[in-house]
Amino acid sequence: MKMKFNCLWVAAGITVVTAMGFSGCKPGKVSQEADGDAAEKVYVAPGKYDELYMFASGGFSGQIAAYGLPSGRLLKVIPVFSQNPENGYGYSEETKPMLNTSHGFVPWDDTHHPQLSKTNGQDDGRWLFINGNNTPRIARINLATFKTEEIIELPNVGGNHASPFCTENTEYIVGNTRFSVPLDANSDVSIDSYKQNFKGAASFIKVDKDKGTMNLAFQLVIPGFNYDLARAGKGVSKDWIFFSTYNTEQANTMLEVNASQRDKDFVMAVNWRKAEQLIAQGKGKKVPARYAHNVWNEETHSATSTIKKDVLMLDVKDYPGIVYYIPCPKSPHGADVDPSGEYIVASGKLAAVIPVFSFKKMLKAIESKQFEDQGLETGIPVLKYAAVLEGEVEKPGLGPLHTEFDSEGYAYTSMFVSSEIVKWKLSTREIIDRIPTYYSIGHLSVPGGDNKKPYGKYVVALNKITKDRYLSTGPELTQSAQLIDITGNKMKLLLDFPTIGEPHYAQSIPAALVTKNQVKFFKLEDNHHPYVAKSEKDARVVRKGNRVDVYMTAIRSHLAPDNIEGIKLGDEVYFHLTNLEQDWDVPHGFAVKGANTAELLVMPGETATLKWVPDRVAMFPFYCTDFCSALHQEMSGYIRVSPK
Ligand code: CUK
Ligand code: CUA
Q1: Which of 22, 110, 177, 333 to mutate to test the pocket of ligand 1 (most atoms within 8 A of CB)?
Q2: Which of 23, 187, 300, 474 could serve as a FRET partner for 294 with CA atoms 20 to 30 Å apart?
Q3: Would the ipTM clear 0.85, i.e. be above it?
Q4: Cα(410) to centroid of ligand 1, in Å?
Q5: Cβ(371)–Cβ(312) below 8 Å
């Protein structure tokens, strides 16, 4: 097949890629028209619903966005690691503890990989997990409410990029370190001592079957490489998880050169079931470690943050049989497992082929000890490439990153440098089709593309650069996703749509799996918030020293109390607003002039608290921020602040 690159910069090959610092594609003059019937395929008529939810990470916005597919309509921004003035997340007293870490309050992060919870290897629509890359954290969003309900920080980890991945029945959510670092308890060492002191730590978070609550069960101490993306096995390989691994050179300067020396890096195969058994036998060591665990309490509608003091660690070099390395050309990024669980597809960013490994062959190679010496002193066996290899996809394009699958035996790989998606047949590894993406695709996402039975139908390209694709908005441009039809032999571009932040990765799920669990409003009778006012007659102002608690209610169309006096400069005022409505889609908001704590947006039946320290003697108006009825403008009041 003739290769056609829409990126001429890199047509000269890998050397050019390396020389240009792997910075991706520049837009050319080519512009692809969508097919004639594309509009019909993405048109969702007014009042009609989309077929799928797509959850995309917002990258450096620290949020997640929920879109409808095929329309690409933005349905909601879900704040996770970032404060969100739109609904007071991270500003209200109830939600502030969600952003606590062992470093203190960190109201920002970098989200990359949304991961839907699974039952029997299928998305079950219960929870969505996502990583914070910067201050290593993993969050759980409840898909019944689209609220972030839990955040757990990961100790001993630098850059929580290889995260989070879900085992077949959501037994564990797994994360790994991007930057190996000295273990927290032994961190003051010279950077020069990288090879000796820097370690990787793979985190295994146990997920409660019913509630979804997370618990950092154990960490595996692994060699001090850089770890990249992973997938848990499924079916035959369900007890394993496969991570891509780069910088096996263990360079600590100029990684772009020094971490690309070796011809092959690795896919790291981890038998998590075996590790779990060893932990159950008491083989783990408790190591001092500080990390925050923040949990939302549904009854009190508020979060609590606890700082944990230690973690169980198991050094894999002391326990043979947990970890094996599979050589993989060159600086692998994605490691993806096919629907059957038999094939592991690894994508070397700088590699000229895509290797497809066989799980069965891997087990055989382990059994017959087909190891090779790679001159590494890690104590971890390295399997022979040829012994594990099923075959290679040849000349796939430049810069393969990630692979997802459909239910018909095809795989789709994103090519960052040649900016395209390549469709190939899993059984023969022959290339079937390729389609350009605009521009520089990172991840791609097939609905259910990591499930035992993918839904297929579409592939979404998540692009790094938009340049000339939309009306321009100055130097800072929107980021972008592209919806591509994969129902036929040829892939067809249907739609471009802008995204919030950088959409690193996305997962999509049939809408019905989510809507069937949706909460429409909170029952007032179940509200056990300590500062709830369940009816207007409970509305009141209570003073204790210089702390003033205002128990306030909101119902169409007034706030009570609406005239507050007796507040003195130097007081700390807490507005606890309870929304008394018991109906879907009637939120009330609350804002007070000059408050630097944003606003509240309170759902029916819920209580939320805004802390305010008045800065001057004045008359401060407050009002409801959400247009809630014809008398919304009347929903307001005054608070008088007098001298001390
Ligand atoms: S990464 Cu592979 S292209 Cu953060 Cu998942 Cu972005
Ligand atoms: Cu309540 Cu506007």
Answers
A1: 333
A2: 187
A3: yes
A4: 22
A5: no
3-state secondary structure 23-71: CCCCCCCCCCCCCCCHHHHHCCCCCCCCCEEEEEECECCCEEEEEEECC
Backbone angles phi, psi at 246, to 5 degrees: -130, -175
Output DSSP code: residue 275.
Answer: H
Backbone angles phi, psi at 632, to 5 degrees: -60, -40
Closest by Cα among 331, 489, 351, 481 to 409: 489
**Domains located in the chain, CATH noted:** 1-60+400-519 (2.130.10.10), 88-185+199-224+284-318 (no CATH), 229-270+321-351+353-394 (no CATH), 531-642 (2.60.40.420)
d(CA 556, CA 589): 12
Q: Closest ligand 1 atom to the C-alpha of 416?
A: 3
Mean pLDDT, range 595-610, rounded to an integer: 96
Q: Which atom of ligand 2 is nearest to the CA of 556?
A: 1
Please name the helix (run of DSSP H) or strand (run of DSSP E) that holds residue 511, with its range, or none. Answer: helix 511-515
| pLDDT tens string 42-77 | 999 999 999 999 999 999 999 999 999 999 999 999
Which letter does DSSP use for residue 178 in this model? Answer: S
Are the C-beta atoms of residues 509 and 447 closer than 8 Å to each other?
Answer: yes
pLDDT band at 410 (very low <50, low <70, confident <90, very high): very high
Residue 54: its pLDDT value, please? 98
Q: Contact at 8 Å (CB) between 7 and 418?
A: yes
Beta carbons within 10 angstroms of residue 255's beta carbon: 15
Cα–Cα distance measured from residue 269 to residue 280, given in angstroms and rounded to the nearest whole number: 21
Q: Ligand 2: distance of its center to the CA of 551 in Å?
A: 17
- What is the end-to-end Cα distance of the chain in Å, rounded? 82
Segment 126-141, tens digit of pLDDT? 999 999 999 999 999 9
Nearest-ligand number for the alpha carbon of 336:
1
Q: Which residues contact 471 (CB under 8 A, 6 or more apart)?
A: none
**Kindly report the CA angle at 87 between 83 and 91, in degrees rounded to 5?**
45
Task: Looking at the CA of residue 113, tell me the nearest atom of ligand 1.
Answer: 5
Sorted by sequence, the CB contacts under 8 Å of residue 276 that are 6+ apart come out as 204, 217, 218
What is the C-alpha separation between 64 and 59, in angstroms, rounded?
A: 8
State the virtual CA torsion across 516, 517, 520, 525 in degrees, nearest 10. Answer: 140
**Ligand 1 near 442 CB (within 6 A):** yes
- Residues 220-273: pLDDT tens digits? 999 999 999 999 999 999 999 999 998 888 888 888 888 777 788 999 999 999
- Residue 513 phi, psi dihedral angles, 5° rounding: -65, -20
